[in-house]
Amino acid sequence: MASTVFMPPPMPRSRALVLLCALALLALLVLAWALGAGEVQAGPATFWQALTGGEDMAAAVVRELRWPRALAAFSCGGLLALAGALMQVLLRNPLADPYVLGVSGGAALAALACLFLGLASPWPDLAAFAGAFAAMCLVFGLARGAGAWTPTRLLLTGVVVAAGGSAGVTLMLALAPDRALRGMLFWLMGDASGATRPYLALGVLLLGLAACLPFARELNLFARGERPAQALGVNTARLRRFIFVLASLLTAVSVSTVGSVGFVGLVVPHLLRLAIGNDQRLLLPAAALAGGVLLLAADTLARTVATPLQLPVGVLTALIGVPVFLWLLGRQAR
């Protein structure tokens, strides 16, 4: 049974503005760290050369390798956190996350099918988006059925679809040749090194944020329960469809860009909600910034902590997310 999300009252507007500015400043600092860290060290002069088209090796590394990867990691972290905040409102459960409705399972199954067949980029990315969209439509249709949506029905349908996708992925890994297995495993655990369309992910993040902020008041009412929201004039059926489609599309773009990265969409919105309240006007942009910072920091650690080896970024987010999730679960039980 889904629970109504109840959190502390919202922050005063002045403090909210300070928080958003602090998160934006933190994002810039983490971005500078991501561009400068690595075997080839880079500083402010190198950044300027990279911006002005300098031919120095360090400038070329920053411009052609680190910048696209950093932008993709930040954008996809923001996409996952924003989708997680929307999913937690949709299911009225603070422990929901973007992958709970089977979207990542459909994306993983389609992308790994391309890798299994030896198809090169951009086919795995396109297939991941198509698989995520197909899973979204499947859950949408099955959960609707002949009756009305409920959070429990939607959640159970998503779990079943996700289990089917997971079974298909496991079968494909068991049958995969050795030459394709490593790439498939990296994709499953999240890998931003091969992101080819970071500007697309950033554009979708900005558009998604612009699309949901006008509905912030309705989302605030919906988070308190469907009947109170209806009594106050909210078209809950339309709002449910909007949240589900938007959150699924945000997740699909993230998964097709950097693979399956867990826990960002779970821990970021929930921790922010504990800290600043449940006002979606503040929570949604704060989640987008904080999610981007978290995934960008994790990706930078993934490529520098064990140099010259690169770790899957999903491993680091899981190492952060698992203890936080257990703490949140225990806190909710108490």
Which helices and strands appear, and what pairs or packs with what?
Elements lengths: L12 H24 L7 H8 L5 H34 L12 H14 L6 H22 L6 H25 L2 H12 L8 H15 L3 H8 L2 H6 L4 H23 L5 H13 L3 H25 L8 H21 L1
Helix pairs in contact: 1-3, 1-13, 2-3, 3-8, 3-11, 3-12, 3-13, 4-5, 4-6, 4-7, 4-11, 5-6, 5-11, 8-11, 12-13, 13-14
The gist of it:
The chain is mainly alpha-helical and 334 residues long. It is 75% helix and 0% strand.
Uncertain spans: 1-8
Domain unit count: 1
Mean pLDDT over all positions: 83
Count the strands? 0
Oligomer: single chain
Q: CATH topology, which one?
A: ABC transporter involved in vitamin B12 uptake, BtuC
Order of helices and strands: HHHHHHHHHHHHHH
CATH class: Mainly Alpha
What distance separates the N and C termini? 17 Å
Main beta sheet: strand number and arrangement? Answer: none
Class inferred from helices and paired strands:
mainly alpha
Architecture, according to CATH?
Orthogonal Bundle
Shape: globular
CA-atom Rg in angstroms: 20 Å
Find the CATH superfamily.
ABC transporter involved in vitamin B12 uptake, BtuC
Share of residues in strands:
under 5%
| Share of helix, binned | over 70%
Total count of helical runs of at least 4 residues = 14
